[in-house]
Amino acid sequence: MPLYWHITHDCAGEYRLTLRLCYTDDELARGVNVTEANLVMFRNRGGSTWENQGGTAYPDQNCVMHDNVTSLSYWTVGDPTTQGPTVIALRSLSARNDPPPPSMVWLFALSAVWIAGWLLRRRSRRGFRF
C-alpha cells in the first residue's frame, strides 16, 4: 500500500504503546494484491529493510493495531503473503516559483497607494510637515 507514517517521540525513558494505523478505501485499493484481512504492521529498520511487526487487522474499521510497541520510526501496513512493503527513495525534486497573477500585483499596488495616502492625511492633521 502506498502509505507510511513517521512516528517519533520526545520523552526520555521506556514506553509501551498500542499503535493503531488506519487507511482509506482508496489507499487500500492502490495496494497490489492486498487482502485486507492479512494486513500487518511493518517497521523500517533503516534503508530498504522493513521488519514484520505483526498486529491485528480490523477491516471493518480500516485499521491495523499492534500492542507493546517499544520503538518508533517509519511504519507502514502491508500484506505479508504478497510482496510486503517496499522503500521508495526520492531521486529528484523540482519546483518553480511562478510570479503572482496580475490581479495580485494591482491589488498590492492599490493597497500601497491607499496606505501612503492615509499616512499623509494623518500626518497633515497632526501638523507634521515633510
What does this structure look like?
The chain is an alpha+beta fold. The protein has two domains: 5-78, no CATH class; 97-130. Helices cover 22% and strands 25% of the residues. The chain is built from two helices and seven strands; from the N terminus they run E-E-H-E-E-E-E-E-H. It has helices at 25-29, 102-125, and strands spanning 5-6, 17-22, 40-44, 50-54, 56-58, 63-69, 74-78. The strands form two sheets. Strands 1-7-3-4 form a four-stranded antiparallel β-sheet, with no helix packed on it. Strand 5 and strand 6 (63-69) form a beta hairpin. The longest helix has 24 residues, at 102-125.
Task: For this entry, give a set of tags.
elongated; 2 helices; 7 strands; alpha+beta; 4-stranded antiparallel sheet; 2 domains; 130 residues
Task: Write a brief caption for the model.
The chain is α+β, with helices and mostly antiparallel strands. It has two domains: 5-78, no CATH class; 97-130.
Show unreliable segments. Answer: none
Number of strands: 7
| Mean pLDDT over the full residue set | 78
Structural class comes to alpha+beta
Strand ordering within the main sheet: 1-7-3-4
In what range is the share of β-strand residues?
25-35%
Report the radius of gyration as a whole number of Å. 27 Å
Quickly count the domains. Answer: 2
Distance between the termini: 68 Å
Specify the overall morphology: elongated
